[in-house]
Amino acid sequence: MENCNFTGYVRYFFIVGFPNLQDHQVPLFFVFLVFYLLILASNLTIIMAVVLDPKLHKPMYFFLTNLSVLDILLTTTTIPKMLAMFLADSRLISAHGCFLQMYFFHGLAVTETFLLVVMSYDRYEAICHPLHYTVRMTKRGNIQLAASAWVSALLVPIPAVVQSSQLVFSGTPKVYHCFCDHLAVVQAACQNSYANFQNFLGFSIAMIVSFVPLLLVSISYTCIILSILRISSKDGRSKAFSTCSSHLIVVTTYYSSIAMAYLSYRADIPLDVHIMSNVVFAILTPLVNPLIYTLRNQEVKSAVKKIVVPKILHHY
User: For the chain, N or C: smaller number of CB within 10 Å?
Assistant: First the structure.
């Protein structure tokens, strides 16, 4: 945090990006452009497959569609501005734009943790209570579960974003990040007790909304594993586990990237590595989620082939 001699109304923030990679902006632009296009294409393919294939009109794939929509929105919140920064050196962002980006990024990130809990609950009901699954996981109930995840998660960041917008800044503050992450913006504020409290508050909220859902997911999978172990048939155990393995890999990938981002704030590491670890958190799961579900789920794989292969043949 800075010690400020002059303070006033902040109109713009300066996004620093990667301080030690200023001579590699064009390669960075193409790398992140490819990532963004892959994220859009793969997640849109998942959405189309679920919508167009009647075999995928099940609760599990309804929640997967929500996850794909979320991943598109999450990356669209940050990557387009990053591309403009890399290609056109467009590093200024308005104060309103910065706090709006901060709200949507953190709100959508929290939504992902809540959706992963909902998806784990769906797998718990399917494996632990298969006879009651269709009764408990009705279309109306699924919509309510998904809506509650979206609405409650989008409410979580409001206090931190509103309070951080009231911090004292000097001149055009430099945000040492590729986008307006909450802790990076707080660290650009003038040093005082309120800013220090915001730093603590933001980190505490992030820890709570990450690890409470992780605890719920862990409880669900403990019950799932115990239920699978009680199945006498080896083929039955294998089939039961295969229905939740994709989601389990997604959860592991997501929380691994969160752990990397959290550790980067506390570890004494180069600034570029710290920023990159947070950027990885923002793009890793949206990039790998469709790949995991396509490769490991036979129903999704078949539905995707029905969409992609005819289009390729028609093109040629």
Answer: C
Concatenated DSSP letters of 186-255: HHTSBPSHHHHHHHHHHHHHHHHHHHHHHHHHHHHHHHHHHHHHT---HHHHHHHHHHHHHHHHHHHHHH
CA distances from 181 to 27, 231, 263 (A): 23, 46, 15
Cβ burial, residue 140 (10 Å; 0-12/13-18/19+): exposed
**Residues near 78 by Cβ (< 8 Å), separated by ≥ 6?**
101, 105, 178, 179, 282
Residue type at position 38: L
How confident is the model over 257-306, as pLDDT tens digits?
A: 877 777 766 656 777 777 888 888 788 888 888 888 877 778 888 888 77
CB-based contacts of 47, cutoff 8 Å, min separation 6: 65, 68, 69
Kindly list the distances between the CA atom of residue 100 and the CA atoms of 87, 251, 296, in Å, as whole numbers in the listed order: 23, 27, 36
Show Cβ contacts of residue 30 under 8 Å, excluding neighbours closer than 6 positions.
none
State the Cα–Cα distance between residues 278 and 204, nearest whole angstrom.
17
- With 0.85 as the threshold, say if the pTM is over it: yes
How many whole angstroms from its chain centre is CA 209?
13
Residue 278 to residue 276: CA distance in whole angstroms: 5
Q: In a 10 Å sphere around its CB, with 0-12 CB exposed, 13-18 middle and 19+ buried, how is residue 163 labelled?
A: middle
Q: How many residues does the chain have?
A: 316
